[in-house]
Specification:
The protein has 125 residues and is mainly alpha-helical. The chain is 84% helix and 0% strand. The chain has helices at 2-5, 8-27, 32-45, 47-60, 66-78, 80-94, 97-121. Helix 2 (8-27) packs antiparallel against helix 3 (32-45), helix 2 (8-27) runs antiparallel to helix 7 and helix 4 packs antiparallel against helix 5. The chain is globular. The two termini are 19 Å apart.
């Protein structure tokens, strides 16, 4: 999507979040078809920011530090999963799962908007 569409790395990452946000919203609905479409959108959107981040680390890290930089990036991208599982288990008892999906959709939309607006003003590599 990124290089072919001319959106670049940030565009690819934000594009994935733009798919994942509506997917989480649809997944929170009670209708089975909407939930299925939401799950597909989540599945299509979530890998794009992860791949974009891994590619960015590989391009920017010096060759002699690539292993350490990749390990650190993977820790930052995936270690929160363990914390999220504990927090999610606690939230399930306190909140309806649909409210949790809507909160994640709002966070995804906010992040995608931030990446999209930052892409216009960012003058980096």
């Amino acid at each position: 999507m990124g290089a072919r569409s001319g959106r670049g790395r940030r565009g690819t990452g934000s594009g994935g979040l733009r798919r994942w946000g509506p997917g989480a919203t649809l997944h929170s609905l009670a209708h089975p078809a909407a939930s299925l479409v939401g799950a597909v959108l989540c599945g299509l959107g979530l890998p794009l920011p992860l791949i974009t981040t891994a590619t960015e680390v590989q391009k920017r890290a010096p060759a002699h530090l690539l292993g350490r930089a990749t390990a650190t990036a993977n820790t930052l991208m995936f270690a929160h999963t363990a914390l999220g599982q504990g927090a999610g288990a606690a939230l399930v008892t306190a909140l309806d799962p649909r409210a949790q999906y809507l909160m994640t959709a709002l966070l995804a939309a906010t992040t995608a908007l931030t990446l999209h607006l930052g892409r216009r003003t960012w003058r980096g590599r």
